[in-house]
Amino acid sequence: MTKSTNLALVDDHALLRNGLATLVSDLGYPVLYECGNGKQLVDKIGKNCVPDLILMDINMPEMDGFETTLWLKKNYPLVNVLALSMYDDENSIIRMIKNGARGYILKDSNPNELKDAIDSIMSKGFYYSDLVSGRLIRSIQDDDEEENNNRKLVMGLNEKEIEFLKLAATEMTYKEIAQQMHLSPRTIDGYRDDLFQKLNIKSRVGLVLFAIKNGIVHFN
Predict the structure, then answer these.
(1) Is the dihedral of CA 60, 63, 67, 73 positive or negative?
(2) What is the pTM of this model?
(3) pLDDT at 65 over 50
(4) Which domains are present in the chain?
(5) Based on the number of CB atoms within 10 Å of its own CB, is 126 exposed (0-12), middle (13-18) or buried (19 or more)?
(6) Cβ partners under 8 Å of residue 144, min gap 6
């Protein structure tokens, strides 16, 4: 199965890319083509040269790995992407995976891990190293915890507070919000201060961001 897996390489460093092409060929994977950035890949893949899996660098000129992976997710969702990068920070890992990468390994990984990653993606649909799994799980747990806490906060708000949050996301002044809600400015100040305390927020901008994030207001 692995020998019929056709690859493409996208990396702006020619020497590294050529060395990687030799390595994966030695591992038994035919390389359809190499590209120096995402735009070159878009041109190649548009000529019916669709690989099974793409080894994708992140930091590239013109069209980087984040943008290219997201483009593939939208236009060629069956093409697997394995991020192969020097970046080991949590944000890069999570962003690549959210953009559609099926796996993420570092460029200093040994050839056996690269082979395991390719085989795992083609057979299971994903590959995450111990490093990535730990970071991703931790991030998901943090996101879930924050989401649960925010949901509780939203459920604890009354109708007037929800209405105030919606109006706070407009260009109205607090005085105009008071007139809109048929309340005194002092009462509106009270709503604002209570929400600051309830939501642990210190500014109107913070209130607006909370409202957007939790679906209280929507911007197209």
Answers:
(1) negative
(2) 0.62
(3) yes
(4) 2-133 (3.40.50.2300), 155-213 (1.10.10.10)
(5) middle
(6) none
